[in-house]
Amino acid sequence: MAMREFLIITKTLADKNRVRMLPALRGGKVCVCHITELFGLALDPVELCRRNCGR
Prior knowledge:
Layout: H1 3-13, H2 16-25, H3 32-39, H4 43-53
């Protein structure tokens, strides 16, 4: 595993909301509006997470 991949994984696992999203994303792509609804999050934190994760 490359260092960049390792850093992305550890950064993702460091945030509880990101970890909570993993099972929801397991089946494939999920619309951001569905993620915000499922987890009771505002759109801004979800978008920030998406940008930080590089996806």
